[in-house]
């Protein structure tokens, strides 16, 4: 039986990967701070084995990873507080656990490693030039994975903005289709493309990769998940209107100017402005290497995916 430890199973991508693994017969352990609370909130028919622990505690992670072949590192600091201080130590704990267990690390990657003004299309060979603080940390995370190979194997699957079940902190759920759905707040720039990733498709892709013969993947494999590319910044808005059955749903522009004015004071506006370039400039993910490995990459139609996202 295939075995995995998931860090971040109660989050968006971690939860999606956990559900998909369980559906395919994997044995999954989820490391969480409060197993009772996590179990009560879990809605899928099959649940992982909940194990108490903290991703910031190396002994907890090493213990939870015993006899596992995969560690999914999809964890973030609680409430995203202390991100700058905590993210790299958490990854170091995962590296230590993977080294001891002989497990491959899976890291859901982001586009923030790149400068969209320099790289409108990214693949495995694109040079990483982060523009913001979080992007710089993401680059360092991938650097540490690369340096640990081949002793510690890893798989980075990079994707655009998440949407779908469990993606409650996403641009989709907090802006485009924030419940109750009375209007669409669109952060996109007209005629500028944007990459989206439907979480169930991304999760299935990760699992298909993990189920390949081990020698098919590089010791440190980095892949791009194309997802749904909104070529003009209008396709997702149109899909939300169709899925909701409200073709007259009003659209408002995201208040970027206000965010820019407030950014010097920190908080949410500063975080938002850190990723503003990815809405002002197109960036598409080239999945050629991914398709070479899998042949067919899971891709639910946009309308079906958006219906599911609105339902959840």
Question: Helices, strands, pairings?
Answer:
Blueprint: E1 3-7, H1 12-23, E2 27-32, H2 35-41, E3 49-52, H3 58-64, E4 70-73, H4 83-101, E5 104-109, E6 121-122, H5 133-148, E7 154-158, E8 161-163, H6 171-176, E9 184-186, E10 194-198, H7 199-210, E11 220-224, E12 228-230, H8 235-244, E13 251-253, H9 256-262, H10 267-274, H11 277-280, E14 284-285, H12 288-294, H13 302-311
Parallel strand pairs: 1-2, 1-4, 2-3, 4-5, 5-7, 6-14, 7-11, 8-10, 9-13
Antiparallel strand pairs: 10-12
Keywords:
seven-stranded parallel β-sheet; Rossmann fold; three-stranded mixed β-sheet; 40% helix; alpha/beta; aldehyde dehydrogenase (NAD+) activity; 13 helices; NAD(P)-bd_dom_sf; single chain; 18% strand; globular; 312 residues
Descriptive overview:
The chain has 312 residues and is an alpha/beta fold. The chain has a domain at 3-161 and 197-227 and 283-299: NAD(P)-binding Rossmann-like Domain (Rossmann fold, 3-Layer(aba) Sandwich), CATH 3.40.50. The chain has 13 helices and 14 strands. It has helices at residues 12-23, 35-41, 58-64, 83-101, 133-148, 171-176, 199-210, 235-244, 256-262, 267-274, 277-280, 288-294, 302-311; strands at 3-7, 27-32, 49-52, 70-73, 104-109, 121-122, 154-158, 161-163, 184-186, 194-198, 220-224, 228-230, 251-253, 284-285. The strands form 4 sheets. It has a 7-stranded parallel β-sheet, with helices on both faces. Strands 8-10-12 form a 3-stranded mixed β-sheet. Helix 3 packs parallel to helix 4 (83-101) and helix 8 packs across helix 13 (302-311). Residues 8-115 form the NAD(P)-binding domain. It holds the Pfam family NAD_binding_10.
